[in-house]
Amino acid sequence: MRLTTIRRIGCLVVWSLLALPLVAGAQGGRSARFKLDPVGIQAALDTYRQAIEAKDLELLRRIRPGLSVAEIERFEQAFDQVDALQVTLTIQSMAANGDAALVKGLRQDRFFLKDGTTLNNEAPFTYTLKETPDGWVIVSSR
């Protein structure tokens, strides 16, 4: 082997020995500080449910601050078509995902339309929540 190749390999070995503890420490520190908060997460989902049932767009914007204008308009249109809504959010699993919580479950909706018709819908949900100084918020929905 040539001397320059040996030096390069030596530099890579030294770099990896120095950098590995730093990377591992940064990853370990982050996960060690983050703890799931089932009570806070349930409270956030309860607020989300209340916002939908009350057709309260302001509360909806607070609990899901990343909603786009188009999403807000879809909520407005849906709210205009119903007299009332009932929402049940059943959590089936909760896991830490970096500095966020990944919550999966089942959503059951009951829509009471203005013409007297009642519609029921059931679908799985996956929400990503993050903790803010004001509590947990939903940052994405699938």
Please give a structural write-up.
There is one protein chain. The protein is of the alpha+beta class and 142 residues long. The protein folds into two domains: 33 residues; 106 residues, Nuclear Transport Factor 2, Chain: A, CATH 3.10.450. The protein is built from four helices and four strands; from the N terminus they run ααααββββ. β2 and β3 form a beta hairpin. α2 packs antiparallel against α3. The longest helix has 31 residues. The radius of gyration is 23 Å and the shape is globular.
CATH architecture of the largest domain: Roll
Low-confidence stretches: 3-32
Structural class assignment:
alpha+beta
CA gyration radius, whole angstroms: 23 Å
How much β-strand is present in the residues?
35-45%
Number of domains: 2
Average pLDDT over all residues: 83
Largest sheet: 4 strands, antiparallel
The CATH topology of the largest domain is what?
Nuclear Transport Factor 2, Chain: A
Task: Please report the number of helical segments.
Answer: 4
Number of strands: 4
Helix content: 40-55%
Instruction: Give the overall silhouette.
Output: globular
Distance between the termini: 54 Å
Under the CATH scheme, which class of the largest domain? Alpha Beta
Report the order of strands and helices.
HHHHEEEE
